[in-house]
Specification:
Elements: H1 2-15, H2 34-59, E1 61-63, H3 64-67, H4 73-88, E2 92-97, E3 100-105
């Protein structure tokens, strides 16, 4: 009987909703333009790829720590991502020797 009473109350509440007194009025939030951010990130990354490729082309082989010696932490991360992209595109080779990452030019690019 109690269960039926609870069920009737639930059905009535669903069928006849009452406006809530303490409803929050939320303001719209400015949307984030992910495409614009992504394009900006790609341009930044491309500039790092170009810089790294130019250095490796001239020196044939460079250590990551020497490449990033005067960079702040954000620049080091961008540089690291850029070398991964260059390796993925097979423009450079990466070799880890202990704690150091050696970057060398792939001279057999198609």
């Amino acid at each position: 009987e109690e269960l039926l009473h609870v069920l009737e109350n639930m059905i009535n509440a669903l069928a006849n909703p009452r406006p809530r007194r303490n409803q929050l009025n939320l303001e719209s939030v400015e949307t984030f333009n992910f495409d614009e951010y992504l394009m900006k990130f790609e341009k930044i990354l491309q500039s790092y790829e170009d810089m790294i490729y130019d250095i490796v082309t001239a020196d044939k082989r460079v250590e990551f720590k020497n490449l990033t010696l005067k960079m702040n932490s954000t620049e080091v991360v961008r540089c690291f991502i850029a070398i991964l992209y260059l390796a993925m595109k097979r423009k450079i080779f990466l070799e880890q020797n202990g704690d150091e990452i050696l970057i060398s030019l792939n001279e057999k690019i198609d």
